[in-house]
Specification:
The protein has helices at about 5-25, 30-35, 40-45, 45-70, 70-90, 95-120, 130-160, 160-180, 205-215, 220-255, 260-275, 280-290, 290-305, 315-330, 335-340, 350-375, 380-400. It is mainly α and about 425 residues long. It has one domain: Growth Hormone, Chain: A, CATH 1.20.1250. The relative contact order is 0.16.
């Protein structure tokens, strides 16, 4: 059966999303190995996750502005080029400092690619299909992040960490080739940017900041607080996801005495929980309500984080990680979908980039603060520190944010059946 243009486009976007996240996921179990190879502390080695998060932060806003002005293809091609270059540099790096710099570069490319593929997909589907679209995106992204460590852990144990990053570079090249072949278009916006638009100022300038702040006023007043809550919720999600990536390997290997392969196994368990929720999360988001997905997706990780430090066996840790997988599965695109519901079409790239830029602070703070706390005490304490933050996000989503799903009435049944 021949696929239509939309189906072919979405298949390519989903496949490349899986490869990008899978490649990054492979790097996570190398943290203890890098600590030994470069003779740095485990807390310092965990900062490869921080560097990646800082890079994502740096690439988010430029990616959104590029998409709004130049289209999605530029971001879809530039991103994997940067990732491939960075992964190859890490495989050949003689010093840990070079590893950190290359991870910054990889994060920048990841962010550009992800915002490009997100908006390319949004342009392809109807508003009532956004939940399922974003669920698919985030599902494949989470699946790659969870399955990647299984391969990375085994490869690091059996070969070396350099083999992991060489394979990551190969995946990025494959993503580049697929992205170049995709027939994606950036739909013309309703509004042509004026001379005061943010894209007409230098990237770091007062004029651009003022123009971007003006875009917030275009959000309906009743949804402005909701947008703020969605930004905080995304930040808390990034906090726990990046903290999990950096702290779980340290907790499992350094604190509980298991291996890098065991870390990969645990992330694979999480992947199963995420995978089984891909379709249910999209249906819940589109058919029942956005909050029915966003609230549990923050409450469940908050509870799991509070319990992880008390888990001693691999089975106990695995059960909690599976619980986390179900929560992560429910979050699949529900916050991004809610944001698309409330922001104006002409500023999709910019305002989504603003939300994600602020949220990347959580991605930076998780490993940075967690690494410092782990060095001062043990790798279990950061979970107790971050759990309540995620629970606060759940309460705000429940009691402050508004439901953004607009259910269209079904057409009246015909009298002449």
């Amino acid at each position: 059966m021949k696929l239509g243009n939309t189906a072919r486009g979405l298949t390519g976007l989903y496949g490349t999303s899986l490869l990008v996240s899978f490649g990054h996921g492979m790097s996570i179990p190398t943290i203890p190995v890098l600590a030994t190879a470069f003779d740095v502390s485990i807390g310092a080695a965990a900062q490869i996750v921080t560097a990646y998060a800082i890079g994502r932060l740096g690439g988010t806003l430029p990616g959104g502005l590029i998409v709004d002005r130049l289209g999605t293809r530029v971001a879809l091609v530039a991103g994997p080029i940067m990732i491939a270059s960075a992964a190859l540099a890490i495989a050949l790096a003689p010093t840990f400092f070079m590893v950190i710099v290359a991870m910054l570069f990889a994060g920048f490319g990841d962010s550009m690619f992800m915002i490009g593929r997100e908006i390319a997909g949004v342009d392809m589907v109807r508003p009532e299909q956004r939940g399922r679209l974003m669920s698919g995106y985030m599902g494949f992204n989470s699946l790659g992040n969870a399955l990647g460590p299984a391969v990375g852990g085994v490869l690091a144990d059996l070969v070396s960490y350099r083999a992991v990053f060489l394979l990551w570079a190969g995946f990025a090249v494959a993503v580049l080739l697929v992205s170049m072949s995709l027939r994606v278009t950036h739909r013309e916006r309703v509004h042509v940017p004026s001379a005061e638009g943010p894209g007409n100022y230098p990237l770091l300038s007062r004029g651009r900041l003022v123009a971007m702040l003006a875009m917030f006023r275009e959000i309906e007043p009743r949804f402005r607080a909701t947008y703020g809550v969605l930004v905080f919720a995304t930040t808390s999600m990034m906090l726990y996801r990046f903290a999990l990536q950096s702290m779980l390997p340290l907790f499992v290997v350094s604190h509980r005495g298991f291996s890098a392969s065991d870390v990969g196994f645990l992330f694979s368990i999480q992947a199963v929980g995420v995978f089984v929720m891909i379709i249910p999360a999209g249906v819940v988001t589109d058919k029942i309500g956005r909050k029915w997905a966003t609230v549990p997706s923050t409450a469940i990780p908050g509870i799991a984080f509070l319990l992880i430090p008390f888990a001693n066996s691999l089975v106990e840790i695995g059960l909690l990680v599976a619980f986390l997988g179900f929560g992560s599965g429910l979050s699949l695109g529900s916050v991004a979908t809610s944001t698309y519901d409330v922001i104006p079409e002409r500023a999709r790239g910019t305002l989504q980039a603003v939300r994600r830029s602020v949220a990347e602070i959580g991605g930076i703070g998780g490993p940075a603060i967690g690494g410092a706390v782990a060095n001062a005490s043990n790798p279990g304490v950061p979970f107790l520190l971050f759990g309540p933050v995620v629970l606060v996000a759940a309460l705000l989503l429940m009691f402050v944010a508004k439901e953004t799903l607009v259910k269209r009435p079904r057409p009246a049944a015909s009298a002449n059946r």
